[in-house]
Amino acid sequence: MKYFMLAFFILLVAGLIFIGIPYTDNQIKIESKEFNEANISGKLIKVSLKHHGNSFRINNNKIEFVFYPITDKVLNQNNYFGNMAKEGDSIYKAAFSDTLLLIKNKNIYKYCFTK
Fold first, then answer.
1. pLDDT of residue 30
2. How confident is the model over 10-14, as a mean pLDDT?
3. With contact defined as beta carbons under 8 Å apart, do 55 and 49 qualify?
4. 3-class secondary structure for 17-50?
5. Residue 13: which pLDDT band, with cuts at 50, 70 and 90?
6. Digit-coded pLDDT (tens) for 35-81
7. Measured over all CA atoms, what is the biggest interatomic distance in the chain, rounded to whole angstroms?
């Protein structure tokens, strides 16, 4: 009985991994496309992590955007987006642009991202 439960547990975990990884990969593709095509302009109302990337929502849009920002000495003084962005800060990104602007206390931080 003990071995049966162990085998059942291993098969259950393997099944979840087998189903979960392709689902997550597909979600990442959909969310990346959505972010890339979006014209984003507004104030942050939520900042968090999702799928090992940064996610945020703005005041005038119901979509939770997910992106993978690059930290850079010149563009954003090596400030990680997840630590810098707070509710009330402004975000701007033109559709199909490769750069997102974070405006915080009259300072502009630029974040390029992976597509």
1. 76
2. 68
3. yes
4. HHHHHHHHHHHHHHHHHHHHHCCEEEEEEEEEEE
5. low
6. 888 899 999 999 988 777 899 999 988 899 998 898 888 888 898 89
7. 65
CB atoms within 10 A of CB 64: 15
Tell me the three-class secondary structure of the chain, residue by residue: CHHHHHHHHHHHHHHHHHHHHHHHHHHHHHHHHHHHHCCEEEEEEEEEEECCEEEEEECCCCCCEEECECCCHHHHCCCCHHHHCCCCCEEEECCCCCEEEEEECCEEEEEEECC
From 57, 78, 60, 58, select the one nearest 69 (Cα to Cα).
Answer: 78
Tokens of 78: 């090596």
Residue 56: name the closest of 102, 106, 5, 24 by CA: 102
Q: How far apart are CA 9 and CA 112, in angstroms?
A: 42
pLDDT for residue 87 is more than 90: yes
Give the whole-angstrom CA distance, residue 47 versus residue 52.
13
> Residue 75 is encoded by which pair of tokens?
């563009």
